[in-house]
Amino acid sequence: MSRVDDQPVGLSRATPRSPVWRRWKNRLFLWVCIATASLSMLILGALLISLTIKGLPTLSWSFVIRPPSSDPAKAGISAALFGTIWVCSVCGLFVFPIGIGTAVFLEEFKPSNIWLRRLHGFVQINISNLAGVPSVVYGMIGTAAFVYMFLMFGRGEPAFEIGLTSFDQFRSVAPRQFLQVKAEGRGAPPTKIESGVAATYR
């Protein structure tokens, strides 16, 4: 009894490519990736070396401690440097406890009510979406809202401006901190989590 072939007449079966060709293709792709990465690192290294050679002779301690000035020869970065330190300090003061506390609360204390579970999932989805937004977008939104829309800068109140800048940076860092703590919590052994929870009870 002859076997009837299910394949239509005249349609040749596709033969798989040989393993040798696949190995060569994988090697070619690997070398292309290595060449692209090496070229990028070479360009970056050349740029950094060029900036160092041109900028190092003009870099001095007075340039660090001098205030900004309209005269480039007398200008310094003291205001920008201390402003950055203040903003990062205030932001870190709030990001770490709020980010870690939120991650632990949402991951370990899940509600049993159906409506609260939906709210719980909604909050987690929004935090995950916010973590995927680039930092430059938060900067643009903060500039548009605080500087141009509400005119909150330029009032001569540095503390107020530092607070607003820290809040804008907080919105960018907190979601990423939440996801990092959440991932670390899921990878931790249950015994350590239970002992940590037990340590909060008397």
Which helices and strands appear, and what pairs or packs with what?
Elements: H1 19-55, H2 61-65, H3 78-108, H4 114-131, H5 135-149, H6 158-187, H7 190-198
Helix pairs in contact: 3-6, 4-6, 5-6
Summarize the model shown.
The chain is mostly helical and 202 residues long. 72% of the residues lie in helices and 0% in strands. The protein has helices spanning 19-55, 61-65, 78-108, 114-131, 135-149, 158-187, 190-198.
Structural class: mainly alpha
The tally of strands reads 0
Approximate helicity band: over 70%
Binned strand content: under 5%
Q: How many distinct folded domains? A: 2
Overall geometry comes to flat
Distance between the termini: 82 Å
